[in-house]
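Quick one, probably user error.
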């Protein structure tokens, strides 16, 4: 089961002041709703063949490094615990309880949201404004996050620092 996709508000803007933003501090250049993308998604594999005995996580869960993901019971009845190799958000679970799996079967995919990536394809009239834009702000739960922009052939990638994992993609609808 995959994590649900939710669109979040993003403003690419020019900023008149430095520091905290209020509605009078900026001139919006583009206001869009965008899906938050991790910089990387990594599958976590079972390295033994057997039967999935337990699944400890669900899609959308925040997983700390070392947390139990699932157990696999081998054909000789020994139990192996699969753990998260790094912290991130469970993006997808690829197995079900009691599935018979082979070695090298992906059990889950963990998305690394320490840095969030948002692809932006602006309209032509907005492109020149973005090239002059000095800032990008992401609004989440009534708070703002500073972003950085990277120009790639008339489209942009917005990067949001989320080292504290306050932004949890797929879990909160922003109105």
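Nope, works fine. Designed sequence:
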């Amino acid at each position: 089961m995959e994590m649900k996709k939710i669109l979040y508000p993003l403003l690419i803007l020019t900023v008149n002041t430095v520091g905290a933003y209020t509605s009078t501090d900026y001139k919006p250049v583009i206001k869009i709703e965008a899906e938050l993308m991790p910089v990387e998604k990594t599958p976590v594999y079972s390295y033994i063949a057997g039967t999935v005995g337990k699944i400890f996580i669900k899609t959308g869960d925040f997983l700390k490094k070392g947390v139990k993901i699932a157990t696999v019971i081998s054909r000789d009845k020994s139990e192996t615990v699969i753990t998260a190799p790094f912290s991130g958000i469970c993006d997808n679970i690829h197995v079900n309880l009691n599935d018979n799996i082979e070695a090298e079967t992906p059990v889950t995919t963990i998305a690394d949201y320490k840095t969030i990536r948002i692809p932006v394809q602006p309209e032509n009239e907005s492109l020149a404004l973005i090239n002059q834009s000095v800032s990008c702000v992401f609004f989440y739960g009534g708070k703002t996050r500073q972003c950085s922009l990277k120009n790639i052939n008339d489209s942009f990638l917005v990067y949001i620092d989320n080292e504290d994992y306050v932004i949890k993609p797929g879990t909160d609808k922003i109105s």
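The chain is about 5% helix and 55% strand.
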